[in-house]
Fold:
Amino acid sequence: MSEATTTPREVAAAAAPMLQVQGLEAWYGESHVLHGVNLEIRQGEVVTLLGRNGAGKTSTLRAIMGLVGRRAGSIRFEGKELIAARPDRIARAGIAYCPEERGIFASLDVTENLMLPPVIAPGGLTVEEIHALFPNLKERARSQGTKLSGGEQQMLAIGRILRTGARLLLLDEPSEGLAPVIVQQIGAMIRQIKQRGFTVLLVEQNFRFAQTVADRHYVMDHGRVVDTLANADLSASTGRLQAYLGV
Amino acid sequence: MEDLLFDLQLVALGITNGAFYALLSLGLAVIFGMLNVINFAHGAQFMMGAFVAWMLLNWLGIGYWPSLILSPLIVGLIGVVMERLLIRPLYKLDHLYGLLLTFGCALVIEGLFRNYFGASGLRYSPPPGFDALDLEYGDFFMPGYRVWVLLAGTAICVATWLVIEKTKIGAYLRAAVERPQLVQAFGINVPLMMTLTYAAGVALAALAGVLAAPVYSVHPGMGANFIITVFAVVVIGGMGSILGSIVTGFLLGFVQGVTDVVYSEASQTVVFVIMAIVLLTRPAGLFGRA
Amino acid sequence: MSLDRRTLLAGAAAWGALPWRSARAQAANTIRIGVLNDQSGLYRDLSGPGSTQAVRLAVQESGITQRGINVEVIEADHQNRPDVGSTVARQWIDQQGVDVIVDVPTSSVALAVNNVVKEKNKVFINSGAATSDLTGAQCSPNTVHWTYDTYMLGKGTGGAMVRAGGNTWFFITADYAFGHALERDTTAFITAAGGRVLGSVRTPFPGTTDFSSFLQQAQRSRARVIGLANAGGDTINSIKQAAEFRITRGGTKLAGLLVFVTDVHALGLEVAQGLVLTETFYWDLNDKTRAFTNRLGAMPGNVKPSMVQAGCYAGVLHYLKAVADMGVQAAKASGAEAVNRMKAMPTSDDAFGEGTIRPDGRKLHPAYLFEVKAPSESRAPWDYYKLVATIPANEAFRPITEGQCSLVRS
Structure:
């Protein structure tokens, strides 16, 4: 992960975007939810998707993972076209997904939940490192997954995808419904994994939280990306953003 | 005293039948949990397990012990083909379609076997040596082979339960029962897992069939007779509950044994009476989650 | 489950029979024979498609088609259910012009079909069912009961067991008309011979596969003889499980009251040896039966013909003789008249030899008490029986005066 061990491939990847989404369309049954989404993320970036409810943020993450009924367009990840791939292939290519509802399994205990996603490449965090990030998970290792508090469940949901060696993490509203102190902890965690070289695509409604972790922001509306903002410009564009978000 | 021994024998016999119920309902529970399909072909697959053992013996000279492995493998492979070709297209539809399809498959399979092998049944003798397990005390007599069925059935149930509850593969299974899409998004080939799960459930039925072959005559209707009771077991235990199906299987065997002592004419009916009571008081079953 | 399945099967049976309706044009000169039996359950091998094959042989050998009379043979599955059986019978007679219904094993179904045929004034040649009520309390001017009945079985097998010292009995009885009749008729012989019946247990029919708990109740009664008042797959499983549980180790004897040659085949001589049984036809009995078996050719499932299948052959052969004698028009016009003509003519065929049909519809022929051979005594495939005794035709069946048949009083 360190600069010294950078391989030619990583250099090349750094030059081209790690993830390039072009003209992405998606349907759930008859309902057409994405209408040509374009976005790109470079290696090591933290990027958020902002937008109001129903703008297509979650659908974009799900479409990237292949979890929609039908999709079209192009999704290139590290040079590989994934538009026709099955979800498990997409995961194996190096993308990990943490859903909004967190997806903690009731029939598995905390450790089983943590160990569930298979390791797909070297470079993931060890269990000790994850326990260091989220000490609660260690204490409650034998508890049923869904017996954890909301914050602990969120930590578990993120922790388990850090193990797998996936290089791009898709996080869907990790701050949602959590106490401010927990939100801060999650923010700290995101900054920490960014330092470790992870790339993150984050869906957020809470742009104040987004501001503390992200490099760039895409704003979505009606199933399209309608604007791009650098984090540095965010304070300057608060008015514009509030118009988009309808706050 | 003499009568007590007879009573004990009837109860013990009920429990050995319970081993068959447990094995069959276990396979059904595994399949229902993972695929959401009510596998009405289970009885036919049980029957095929017995017939394949018979064919291995009479056509290829392969005996009982290898058949215990080979027959479930062969029938499991047939299960793979069934899942891929027939059942897979129905996952998106209501339960009822899977039920009707597998029910139709059961009728076709039974019909084909009946046409070829007749209805009276074929002989399949266990290898000699089970006499060593005979339990005899005065009027109490339990044939060695039934003792073996009880031991083997219990061992297989416990092993299956351990695999599901205590291993990584089991964790994948349990997780995929809850959220198949998410598990697939973790990089696990869930469609393949579904195929293999169906095959494993079918193989369990076939294994029960091989165990049953020396006890009952091997005939095309042997599964159809069993499966109605087994579905009652599944309903009582709770659809899809692994532990529920095992415990309920043995429990109902025991209850039938006791009923045989008290009033044997009711021993078939008692299962359905219990089913009705359970459905009225705990609709999700004894072990099911509401 | 069974409800759905039965309905589907009944639908399939009706659908399968549809194309025959197109043959209406030649109706007046055509005899239609419907073979109604168990095509899918535990009696399939002893009746089933083998009965149809036997009927076709009878049609061919009757030579009736050379006289310009058409014969059509159709078949259906009654699934051992009285409601299905009477529905098919009604449909056949009303919509497809069936003149004679043949076989119909399973006594409860046979009694139902018996009523339908009588009401419609057609002909019923029963071979497969056992209940002696067909020529007793429920006798019909339209019915001939050809092959065997519960009285004959009870007298043959039951009588032989009592004579051999089996004077206390316990019955394992299939819980429907046949089992009840067989138990009743056998009990009469046991008590008449000074024996006692200690108890009985009724097993659900169809659908019982495990008889071990019933066998143990029988054992507990300490009866010397366990009487199996069941048939087909039920008998096979009972005998097999009796061997497994060594029911006979304390000297208890099994009496299979209705055992067919196909059952013995399924059991194997190892298990079946020594069983005493009564039949009216055995393929290897004499030159004529062997010749008949040869002419019949390969049977479905590669079995030798059972007495039920032989009875279908002989019954249809005799019926067609009566038709040839009285003319197609008259035979079709009144089933009772056709049966009367059958009763008036002596019977003669290779399966049962010479015989007669009594006014109550009972076909008379000798019955044979066989013992199943030990494996070492069997010299060829299907060489299963040795003849113990022949019961003459006039002794094998219930005396006509004892049957309470209304046709007899006059």
